[in-house]
TrEMBL record:
Domain ABC transporter intervals: 16-256
UniProt keywords, alphabetically: ATP-binding, Hydrolase, Nucleotide-binding, Translocase, Transport
Molecular function GO terms recorded: ATP binding; ATP hydrolysis activity
InterPro entries, alphabetized: AAA+_ATPase, ABC_transporter-like_ATP-bd, ABC_transporter-like_CS, P-loop_NTPase
Keyword Translocase: yes
Phylogenetic classification of the source organism: Archaea, Methanobacteriati, Methanobacteriota, Stenosarchaea group, Methanomicrobia
Gene3D superfamilies in the cross-refs: P-loop containing nucleotide triphosphate hydrolases (3.40.50.300)
Source superkingdom: Archaea
Family annotation (Pfam families): ABC_tran
Species name: Methanoculleus bourgensis (strain ATCC 43281 / DSM 3045 / OCM 15 / MS2) (Methanogenium bourgense)
Spans traversing the lipid bilayer: none
Glycoprotein in keyword set: no
UniProt name for this protein: Iron complex transport system ATP-binding protein
Enzyme Commission identifier(s): 3.6.3.34
Length: 271
């Protein structure tokens, strides 16, 4: 008889499973009945205009914000867990938040930035660094092609270089997925090119990518699913080519646009 043991055939729970998740802060609805399932290893983009609720969604995932009304129709799970802590989160989801760079205001070296990912700190302080941590850090610095920044102070490097070190910091626990919130805001064309190359390398290495952005051109070719956010809701969710249409992007940003695809990247033109 064939072995049909249900346990061996069960698929793993999704990375994120949200149904009807609403978040209200200071009397304001930031997320309005958001339903979203993300599987481990998926490459997705969450696109929306300023104020759409993207960062609020990220803060809900990282448990800085909480769903306001748990009820029978509300599902709020991370890898099948209904409550999760920073340790669960960082070993499965590496987060590079938009404002993280500005918290490294002291002269911490590139190497310390990556190492501090082991302690979820901003710098090493009295934390004990093990030889394994040193080894992992070297591996990451090599992989991200930033070994030359190891001894440079964070305050004396460019935004693009700092961005790559912060990505390295988020990768120390080998998370299955990397989440980046508005990663290209302060990057020039050269830094944007390097960032795209780095992110493509990460995506191709098997790490899932959740890219949160208001720029169409941030969406690397490896991303196949796009979610559009508007007014705290998930407005569209589907395959990239079906979602990134003139009509949908024009209505999302409230501007007439022509969406062009070139070399696997999408661009909004004519506004
Ligand atoms: N803690 C809070 N209390 C009240 N209002 C908030 C809070 N956090 C965010 N908002 C408001 O909620 C709306 C959604 O903000 P959010 O930062 O999630 O949007 P976003 O899509 O990330 O926008 P951006 O691209 O500008 O960062 C905004 O109008 C913002 O001012």
């Amino acid at each position: 008889m064939t072995d049909t043991n249900a346990d061996t055939q069960k698929s793993p729970p999704p990375l994120l499973e949200f149904q009807n998740v609403s978040v209200v802060r200071d009397g304001r609805t930031l997320l309005d009945a958001v339903s979203l399932t993300v599987r481990e290893g998926e490459h997705i983009a969450i696109l929306g205009p300023n104020g759409a609720g993207k960062s609020s969604l990220v803060r809900t995932i990282t448990r800085e914000y909480y769903p306001s009304s748990p009820g029978p129709d509300v599902v709020f799970r991370f890898r099948g867990l209904e409550t999760w802590d920073a340790f669960d989160l960082r070993s499965h989801l590496g987060v590079v938040s938009g404002d993280l760079q500005h918290t490294f205001t002291r002269g911490i070296s590139g190497r310390e930035v990556v190492l501090s990912g082991f302690f979820s700190s901003i710098g090493l302080f009295t934390h004990e660094v093990t030889p394994e941590m040193e080894e992992k850090t070297d591996e990451i610095l090599e992989f991200l092609e930033v070994a030359h920044l190891a001894d440079r102070p964070m305050t004396g490097i460019s935004s693009g270089e700092a961005q790559r070190l912060l990505i390295g910091r988020a990768l120390v626990h080998d998370p299955g997925t990397l989440l980046l919130d508005e990663p290209t805001t302060s990057l020039d064309l050269h830094a944007l090119h390097t960032f795209r190359t780095t992110l493509r390398k990460i995506a191709r290495s098997g790490t899932g990518v959740i890219l949160v952005t208001h720029n169409l051109h941030d969406i690397i070719p490896e991303i196949s699913r796009v979610i559009l956010m508007r007014d705290g809701t998930i407005w569209r969710d589907g395959p990239k080519a079906e979602v990134l249409t003139n009509d949908a992007i024009g209505r999302l940003f409230v501007v007439p646009v022509h969406v062009m695809e070139e070399g696997g990247y999408y661009y909004a033109m004519g506004y």
